[in-house]
Amino acid sequence: MLMIRTIRQSDYSNVSNLIRTAFANTANGYRNEAELVDKIRKDPAYQKRLEVVAENGIHLVGYGLLSEIKVVDGAKASTGLVLAPLAVEPGSQKSGVGSLIMGELDNRAINLGYQFTVVTGWPDYYPRFGYQKASDYGIKSPTPVPDDVFMAKPLVDGGLDGVHGMVQYSKAFNM
């Protein structure tokens, strides 16, 4: 039975290994995602409730983390979240684990009052969960990425109304 729960400190090492394994098996390869997670946990805006693991009763098979971002347009800043990273062990991919993690994280984010999320990821995967090109909302990535891989989604009706500008990640992303 699969259970999604808040991460525990005792999970950190296993999560780090899971992230490395999951990303090593992708077309883009591993790009220090585990180190990013370590840095996000040290950020003052880090919220443990937005870091979850998927456990199959024996071991961890998935992981997801949402952390705060701002979308800045001049003097106006809107606070939202970024999904980074989402990782599922290779043997459990394409079995719904990622979907369950994202659903749980979305619910937690909504309960905490967040209105929207962004993600940089596979354009053939994330749109099925409501993500679309961030540029459709007038939201820009601070780093050069293809338009179709930088996506945003409202968590509630109107969650992206009036939100546009440049995403500002936490300092943890300065790697």
Automatic annotation (TrEMBL):
Keywords: Acyltransferase, Transferase
EC number per UniProt: 2.3.1.-
Protein source organism: Lentilactobacillus buchneri subsp. silagei CD034
Enzyme class: transferase
UniProt-recorded Gene Ontology molecular function terms: acyltransferase activity, transferring groups other than amino-acyl groups
Entry protein name: GNAT family acetyltransferase
Superkingdom field: Bacteria
Domain N-acetyltransferase: 2-156
Lyase listed as a keyword: no
SUPFAM superfamilies attached to this UniProt entry: Acyl-CoA N-acyltransferases (Nat) (SSF55729)
